[in-house]
Amino acid sequence: MAQGDTHQQGSGSAPEGAPEHDAHHAPDHGSDHGEAGFWRTYVFSVDHKVIGIQYTITGFLFLLFGFCLMLLMRWQIANPGEALPVIGRWFGDDTMPGGIMLPEFYNQLGAMHGTIMVFLGVVPLAFGGFGNYVVPLQIGAPDMAFPRLNMASYWVYFVGGIVMLASFFVPGGAAQSGWTSYPPLAVINPTGQTVWLFGMALLITSSLLGSVNFITTIVQLRAPGLTWTRLPFFVWAQLVTAFLLLLAFPPLEAAAFMQLMDRLADTSFFLPSGLVVGGAVLDQVSGGGSPILWQHLFWFLAHPEVYVLILPAMGIVAEVIANNTRKPLWGYSSMVYSVWAIGFMSFIVWAHHMFLTGMGTVMNAFFQTTTMIISVPSVIILTCLILSLWGGSIRFSVPMLFALAFLPMFGIGGLTGLPLGLAAADIHLHDTYYVIGHFHYVVAPGTIFALFAGIYYWFPKATGRKMSTWLGHLHFWPSFVAMNLIFFPMFIQGMQGMQRRLFDGGATYAHTQGVLHWNTVIMVAAWTMALFQLPFIFNFFWSIWKGEKVSENPWQATTLEWQAPSPPPHGNFAQVPSVHRGPYDYSVPGADRDFTPQTDRGPEPIPAE
Amino acid sequence: MSSVIPYTVEARPDTGLNNVKIGIWLFLASEVMLFGALFASYILLRVGAPTWPRGADILNVPLATVNTLVLISSSVTMVMSWASLVKKDFGRFRLFMGGTVLLGFVFLGIKYIEYSTKFHHGLLPSSSTFLAIYFTLTGLHGLHVIGGMAVNAYLWGPGASMWKQNPQQFTNRVETAGLFWHFVDLVWIFLFPVLYLL
Fold first, then answer.
1. A212 to chain B, closest Cα gap in Å
2. Given A220, A253, A286, which is nearest B128 (Cβ)?
3. Is residue A563 a contact partner of residue A573, using CB atoms and an 8 Å limit?
């Protein structure tokens, strides 16, 4: 194995003004070795960078699709029973006869919006996309530990996604029992639910393969000198995320298997005795099952899953903030301990989603306590990120705008989680729009903004070009306003008692009449949000070919990925990097520049007090 | 420009592990969670049930006892096959690995007899929650037995050609497959008393 120091940065990179070999290619450069054909280079590649890009593009497409489902729902909520102009005519009579949405179709949109956004959009993007592309580069590795397993995990995800999309076209339509698929309803609902269960099995398998790969890679393939305490926070976050996926998903796999048995083999894992459906007793099943069992198994995964949604985002924000404040992260070790604490605690809070199931006060008290405790490491991480700004030389680049916005948005999301985590307050708020506002604040202006930050930040590494800053601003500012106009009113509606999953937007209830007008505000904000994603989509693709060309380290960053060429070739580094310092040596006193890459030897930084 | 992944065969000094060994232990951790969830479901269903049958009243304890001995023996032969490779005795490896696969077939054969007898008597997964969890637990376990046997058969057959080019890597592969096989055996060691004896 080649050992080598890199005294000058970027050895093996193309010099400035390199010939236009990167001008017309997709941002992966697989065609460096001419022998592999088109399919092995761009489609069935085992290179982590190609796979990362595949995950990213596929993830964004699903995010867009899930977004469109929500846009349809928002029309119905704001204008229940009215025909959707123009677009409404595209749907058939079994979904929107005359352009008017059927309740069953609304429920399908709701269940699939959640499923697609969480399992097909955000996680593949945050973990599969950013994780695959950046982690091997940031640890100085030539690729993931198991490249073929990596390729397999992408394609299993892809097939799982196709299966989920196909569920819209089976008789009875897609799954319509919420992304949570609670029995008994999920067991007796039409075929789409069976397709959903098979799709989930494929997606879970993909995640498991990926998580094995990530953990092995981070443990085994760190470059010489890259000790644990020199690891970028992004890599720590991805490591904990991988453990969550590895250990939390299998119970849902077991539960999905059992629900399939209930639907296909007439078992009664989740069907209680004496169940009456449509006026008739369900007598071909044995009964004796427990709907609560499903809830326990589902939430055992789904709670760690929400930390899977947020941790990579925190990792991205940490990298962007350190780079754009030109100073080290404040409280790096606290952040690392906190991310492990979150990981561990996330396994023992799940039943705060079940406070109203009648579990009893002892169970409620236990889970309320653990839920309050888990807020501590989350606040520590957010505080460290905010304190990292203090005394910084802040550069308001487009990635930094999104990273800065993440901070208060995640703050609102996190704080609104507190009354939900207290069982007494949850009596009023459970299953209301307050919950929807809470978790969307964390995921939408939280995680998704962090993902945008990551795209703008690492795009130059993947393509050798920068995205347009002007279009970045046109994307950021309206999106930031729109996000808040969409989700803040939901807290108001929720506190008024407006329930979730109402296909008519709450129109039939007396207690919601005073807050119904917000539905129109939310709808307009959502459609505006859609409009201002167009600059981003255009910017992304246009910049691949026409963006301003950059060298390997346009952001003047310290971490290892910026030592590789932009884009990196197969194997990433000409020689194995040798690491001599921590990940955030910005503004080291006595250094000649305001950043000192991890591979630089040179004088040791003056230790902090 | 090297894209060779380090530590695929030789161990990394500070962890003392090669990549595949870490990988398989991580995978086994996820499998513990998978079967753990099913065992937890068994507990929840049994605790919540007004009545619960004795395993021996419905299931064939003698046959399952034989199956337990069959699986334990197959774990022994599995270790012997790996040890033979360490001692560079390819012939004995073939013998013991073949024995492992054969014992796997015996296990599946006995399971087939058990299942078909149940179905013949109208005892289906839908008949009771006990039978539902019995068929699900043993069925998922059986699928894992089949998977393990497929890998073992591959290593016994076409996969064994790696012994000539890279004996160390082949030995590692057999060790890894052995770890999975021992896990499958261990799950049965829990399944048997829980379902059949309690």
1. 6
2. A286
3. yes
Using CB atoms and an 8 Å cut-off, which of residues 67-106 of chain B contact chain A? none
Which tens digits make up the pLDDT trace of A187-197? 999 999 999 99
Distance CA(A271)–CA(A290), nearest Å, equals 6
Q: Give me the mean pLDDT over the B92-117 stretch.
A: 97
Q: What is the pLDDT of residue A25?
A: 40
HEC states along A151-212? Answer: HHHHHHHHHHHHHHHHHHHCCCCECCCCCCCCCCHHHHCCCHHHHHHHHHHHHHHHHHHHHH
Q: pLDDT tens, B146-165?
A: 999 999 999 999 999 999 99
Cα distances from A443 to residues A90, A108, A350, A361, A412, in angstroms, run 30, 21, 18, 30, 11
Closest residue to B19, CB basis, from A145, A247, A266: A145
The four Cα atoms B91, B97, B100, B104 give a dihedral, to 10 degrees, of -130
Query: Which residues have CB under 8 Å from A573's CB, separation 6+?
Result: A6, A12, A140, A142, A563, A564
Q: Do B132 and A145 touch (CB under 8 A)?
A: no
Cis check for the bond before A567: say yes or no (omega within 30 of 0): yes
Question: Which residues are registered as beta bridge partners of A465?
Answer: A549
A14's tokens = 């193309």
A348 to each of A213, A304, A343, A418, B33, how far by Cα in Å? 25, 9, 10, 16, 14
For B42, nearest residue in chain A (alpha carbons): A269
Confidence of residue A286 (pLDDT cuts 50, 70, 90): confident
A1 to chain B: closest CA residue = B6
The helix/strand/coil state of A565 is: coil
Mean pLDDT, range A139-149, rounded to an integer:
97
- Domain A39-224+231-268+290-563 class in CATH: mainly alpha
Distance from CA of A270 to the nearest CA of B (A): 9
Nearest to A479 by CA among A455, A508, A444: A444
Instruction: Give the pair of three-digit tokens for residue A525.
Output: 């904000």
Local confidence band at A284 (pLDDT 50, 70, 90 cut-offs) = confident
Element (H, E) at A490: helix A469-495
Burial zone of A98 (CB within 10 Å; 0-12 exposed, 13-18 middle, 19+ buried): exposed
A604 contacts A49 by C-beta, under 8 angstroms: no
The confidence score (pLDDT) of residue A609 equals 62
CA distance B68 to chain A (A): 24
Q: Which helix (H) or strand (E) holds B53?
A: none
Distance, in angstroms, between B127 CA and closest chain A CA? 6
Q: pLDDT tens-digit profile of A92-136?
A: 899 999 999 999 999 999 999 999 999 999 999 999 999 999 999
CA-nearest of A200, A193, A148 to A171 is A193
pLDDT at residue A74, as a whole number? 96
**What CATH architecture does domain B19-197 belong to?**
Up-down Bundle (1.20)
Of the candidates A143, A208, A219, which has its C-beta nearest B5's C-beta? Answer: A143
**Separation of alpha carbons B158 and A486, rounded Å:** 59
Lowest mean pLDDT among A178-182, A240-244, A273-277, A469-473: A273-277
Question: Per the CB < 8 Å rule, is B22 touching A215?
Answer: yes
